[in-house]
Amino acid sequence: MDARLRRVNKEISDCKNDKTSNITLELVDNSPFHLKGSFPGPEGTPYEGGNFEVDITIPDAYPFQPVKMKFITKVYHPNISSASGAICLDILKDAWSPVLTLKSTLISLQSLLCSPEPNDPQDAEVAKHYTTSKASFDETAAYWTQIYAGGPGPKASLKGDNIKDKDNKKGKGGMMDEIAMAGLEKAHVEQFESLGFPKAKVIDVLKRLNYRGANVSSISEDRIVEELLK
Amino acid sequence: MSDYEVSDDEYYYDDEEMMDGTQDDDEYDEMDMDDDYNDYNDDFKVDTVPKKKSYEIDYESLSQADVEELMKQDVEHIVGITGVEECAAAILLRHSSWNKERLIEKYMDNPTGLLVEAGVTVPEQPEPTTSGSRAHSVSASSPSTKRSTRSSSKILSSFVPSSRNSSSKVSSSTTGSSSTRTSSTLMKRLSPDPSPTNSNEPFTCPICFDDSTDLKPMALDCGHMSCSGCWQAYITSKIRDEAEHCIRCMAEGCQIVSPDSFVKKVLTSCGDSSMMGVDVEANKIAWSRFQELLARNFVASVPSLKFCPYPSCTNTVKCTDAALKSSLTTIVPTVSCGARGIPGLEKSSGEESGNNNKNSKSKGTSGGSGTSSSILANKEHKFCFGCPIEADHRPVVCAIAKMWLKKCEDDSETANWIKSNTKECSQCQSTIEKNGGCNHMTCKKCKHEFCWVCMGPWSEHGTQWYSCNRYDEKAGVDARDAQSKSRASLERYLHYYNRWANHEQSAKLSVDLYAKTEKKMEDMQLTSELTWIEVQFMKKAVEEVEKCRMTLKWTYSMAYYLAPGNQKELFEDNQRDLEKAVEDLSELLEGPIEPEDIPNLRQKVTDKTVYVQKRNEIVLDDTAKGFHEGRWKWNVPVEGFEDDEAGFDA
Ligand SMILES: [Zn+2]
Ligand SMILES: [Zn+2]
Ligand SMILES: [Zn+2]
Ligand SMILES: [Zn+2]
Ligand SMILES: [Zn+2]
Ligand SMILES: [Zn+2]
Question: Which CATH architecture has domain A3-114?
Answer without folding.
Answer: Roll (3.10)
